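Task card 7
Instruction: Convert sequence to structure tokens.
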Amino acid sequence: MTNTPEMPSQTGEDEAAWRARVAGYARSVRAFAPADLDDSDGGDGDQAALAAGALVVASTMLIDEAIEDIATLMQRGGTVASNGEMFMALGELPPRFADGYDGRFARKFLVATVTVTGRLSAPQWEPPTCTAETLALHLVVRRAGDLLVDHGCLDEQQARSLYAGFEEAAFEDGDFERLYMEGLEETADTHHAGEADAIPQTWFEPKTEQPAHVFHHRG
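Output:
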């Protein structure tokens, strides 16, 4: 993403100015048609612009939070599970795998987040190539909806409905949602059996033939 947005809480602007500013970021989202981000009948495009702009703001927020989470792990060591409730981006990943979210995982998740959100500005959409990218995009969508609700643009139901078309176009499937459910057996062969990955280290392995950026990183 270009033109990094300011965080809404730091601008001191009124709601009308915030909406205008966020809608202005919509031009950065070239990978999706306005119809994917507007569930209104005969809408004039204002809703689509706000929805797209909120994705840009949410992407920046998630990247910043992932960087802060990395700094926390560098200072304290250990994992998200061993450090309690002090994480933002990593704290919203499936909680029952938190003992696998260490510094190395966090750095790779940051790269996955930058990679998948950067594709929003590409002329043509490339779906997430791994589970980590899928989870990152999921968090971005959730944050974008929360932003629109918090700023009085929509209620929660409207926000969910608004991004339904985007999610249908952006995600190839909803397998990642199973990671948030209890009871998924944590075995090494779940990925190869076609089930949602039960081991965080496998979330960076490519599921498509598209080029990989972080999957074999050992740092």
